[in-house]
Amino acid sequence: MRTVGVEEELLLVDPDTGEPRALSAAVLARAARCEDGRDDVFEKELHSQMLEFATHPQSGMDDLGAEIVRIRGEAARHARETGCAVAALATSPLPVRPSVSMNRRYQWMAEQFGIATQEQMVCGCHVHVSVGSDEEGVAVVDRIRPWLSVLMALSANSPFWQGRETGYSSYRSRVWQRWPSAGPTELFGSAERYHRRVADMVATGTILDEGMVYFDARLSARYPTVEVRVSDVCLHADTAVLVATLVRGLVETAARDLETGREPVDHSVSLLRLAGWRAARSGLAGDLLHPATMRRAPAETVVGALLAHVEDALADAGDLERARAACGELLRRGNGAHVQREVFGRTGSLREVVAACVRQTQA
């Protein structure tokens, strides 16, 4: 059974106004003082209004879900003790002046990329799935490319930006594309070609190191995993578990295709970018591009195609019925973008949107 780990980035907000607060250093200091020995899961992020955590690798989705809920609760407790709250929001609905963390790496980024660094106060969900080797990992990266936009649509949770309705379900993903190394990739074909491409990118001096290669899916620089990075941070913990379940299904399916000699689909990067744009724009509320044909189809049809594609892998892991039920519930309930818009439509207040998301982050 392949193990799965999840990294989530959370927004720190004022519990009364909903405005982001630059208190990550205080929250991290309080977490470090705790005696339970479990709070080293928290890390500093690019901006002081953000807090990141990482789960341990898990084989079972029940265990993964329980850990996400537990750590979200710990983050909320630490934040409360320092005068703020945590919200699983991929962008701030309210206006904010982002504060870059005092860190040599982050300061280099601010100097190198200017206003684009300031704008990157966005929160994502990254899923790590174990692979047996770099060769297997690159084969997986090549084969999962067409399906990543569907994960973006499922997780979309950023319709508001700096006090405005964006017209997008995942505006975070559009902001993220401003990094020069971000986005979909062409087929690599081998681990040697993958590593050569990464080395060439670093050698340009445009990015600092391998950690700044922000491909939609990449080999982790720290762990023996494929890391999928397209998702918004999910408003609900159960959506994060669904995304992780589907990513593991995609990785396992791709590895089996490698074993049987099935070649990856050679969609161009141009088409993959269009699929990502469509997913960011529509979320689950409109058409997506079908990964097989790259033609428009209803979101429900495309989500069903993803489930069918990974069905055998999900069934073998004991995850199939759970994933079907979770997809059905998400299509009925709507993703985080839908929830945020529903609250705003009902209240007319972005502060109420943030307050509702603070409550639902731990629900």
Distance between the termini: 29 Å
Number of strands: 11
Number of helices: 15
- Helix-and-strand structural type: alpha+beta
Q: State Rg.
A: 19 Å
Q: What is the top-level CATH class of the domain at 110-361?
A: Alpha Beta
Shape: globular
Please explain how this structure is put together.
- By secondary structure, the protein is an alpha+beta fold.
- It has a domain at 110-361: Creatine Kinase, Chain A, domain 2 (2-Layer Sandwich).
- 49% of the residues lie in helices and 13% in strands.
- The chain is built from 15 helices and eleven strands.
- The chain has helices at 24-33, 61-81, 104-113, 115-119, 134-144, 148-155, 171-176, 191-203, 237-260, 269-282, 299-309, 311-317, 320-333, 336-347, 350-361; strands at 4-13, 42-43, 50-54, 85-87, 124-130, 160-161, 164-165, 217-219, 225-232, 287-289, 296-298.
- Strands 1, 2, 3, 4, 5, 8 and 9 form a seven-stranded antiparallel beta sheet that branches. A two-stranded antiparallel sheet has the order 6-7. A two-stranded antiparallel ribbon has the order 10-11.
- The longest helix is centred in the last third of the chain and has 24 residues, at 237-260.
- 49% of the residues are buried.
Q: Secondary structure elements and their pairing?
A:
Blueprint: E1 4-13, H1 24-33, E2 42-43, E3 50-54, H2 61-81, E4 85-87, H3 104-113, H4 115-119, E5 124-130, H5 134-144, H6 148-155, E6 160-161, E7 164-165, H7 171-176, H8 191-203, E8 217-219, E9 225-232, H9 237-260, H10 269-282, E10 287-289, E11 296-298, H11 299-309, H12 311-317, H13 320-333, H14 336-347, H15 350-361
Antiparallel strand pairs: 1-3, 1-4, 1-5, 2-3, 5-9, 6-7, 8-9, 10-11
Helix pairs in contact: 1-2, 2-9, 5-9, 6-10, 9-12, 9-13, 14-15
